TrEMBL record:
Membrane spanning residue stretches: none
One protein family per Pfam: Cu_amine_oxidN1
Highest taxon of source: Bacteria
NodB homology domain boundaries: 86-271
PANTHER family assigned: GLYCOSYL TRANSFERASE-RELATED, POLYSACCHARIDE DEACETYLASE YHEN-RELATED
Name of the protein this chain belongs to: Peptidoglycan/xylan/chitin deacetylase (PgdA/CDA1 family)
Gene3D superfamilies membership: Copper amine oxidase-like, N-terminal domain, Glycoside hydrolase/deacetylase
Amino acid sequence: MNKGVSKPFFRRSLKWIWTVAVILFYLFSYHSSALSTYSALDIDQTINHSSSSKIDAASYASKPVHFQTLSSAAQDQKQPTPKQPKTVYLTFDDGPSKNTPEVLNILKEEKVPATFFVLGEQSKQSPELISRIVNEGHAIGNHTYNHEYSQLYQNFVSFWNQIKQTEEVINDIVGIRPQLIRAPGGTYGHFDQTYFDLLEKGGYHVVDWNVDSGDSTRKNVPAKEIISNVEKAKLNDRMIVLMHDGAGHNETVKALPQIISFYRDHGYTFKTLTPEDEPLHFSVHVESKWSHRIAPGTAWIESHVDVNAELFHPGTVLALEVGRMQTELKSGEYRIENNKYMVPLRTLMEKLGAEVYWQGQERQVTISQEPYLLVVDLKKSLLQIVRPESKASSIQISISIRNDKVWVPLREVLQSTGHPIQEVTMDNDKRGIKTL
Ligand SMILES: [Zn+2]
């Protein structure tokens, strides 16, 4: 009986337990799967979100790549995705010229910054315009010294020399070494891989364009045509517009206000190009007439290109403690060549309180620093030292001229004025020399 009563009861309760178990199982598994689906979705979207923002940032040059944490990315999902800002970079080549003041006036009125790829030859003639460009918040780029294709694309060394020559001119005027370079005529047809590689190695950034205003396709292209060329170009998030402010480009000046309005109406922000921007240049293709040029040798690259990138580490000043005098040479005011500090003689000696005289005919520099008299003879590469109450002596030094400046080895010059070097510090961010 007990058995009979207990059996159905047992069965019933088993069924009940089973039902509860099944319900519990379904409840639990549904819940956990919902949970896991949700988190998978969440992570997925998070990944998508951050990777898409990464791609956007990378393709959109001036915006730094921004890595978000997962939680902040998830939070951001609740917000509607903000519209990507669009940027236009107005660039002017071949100046400065008499058109440049007018271009600057328009930019000032419209409160728009731009980038000027200037020629060294022109800059030397109108240094006041280079100063004005910089003072009004625009960027300066290097467009070589004289724009002569036959010299520039003959071989890389000629191109490099013109870049350096122009750089010295600009540095003398405004104390800036432009890192941005635009090749005359653009890189396409002109640059081979060596040009690209060595310029990059030297610390430069080559920038072509993706909108040609067509203002230099022939003489006096009318403003109307320049505007229409700009307006018909396909709109991207990043527009680099080629224009010219060189002599003869009055029509570009006339077209400029309309070009500015066009980009403004399309929601673009105006910016200057910077070396930090994602590079934009044409693919490598060399016209056959340039294809036989010879690339520079290893020794030349070592002594010119390798040390050049040093110039663009703005933090690296060379602190000098010479006797009781303290001064410093900014990057660009010294360079390291074959493990030796080379300095522009006048810059150094004037900082140390000496008087410097240049005798052009004799090609000699005379430096008077009590109680010493130094004579640097460029013809003989000789440094003569006249000390009081002792015989004059002389040593052979390596002298080089760079854009009218006489560069000499720092060690020898300091030693000759009775200050042998005692201590040299050479860290990445700190360089210093201490003498007796
Ligand atoms: Zn040009």
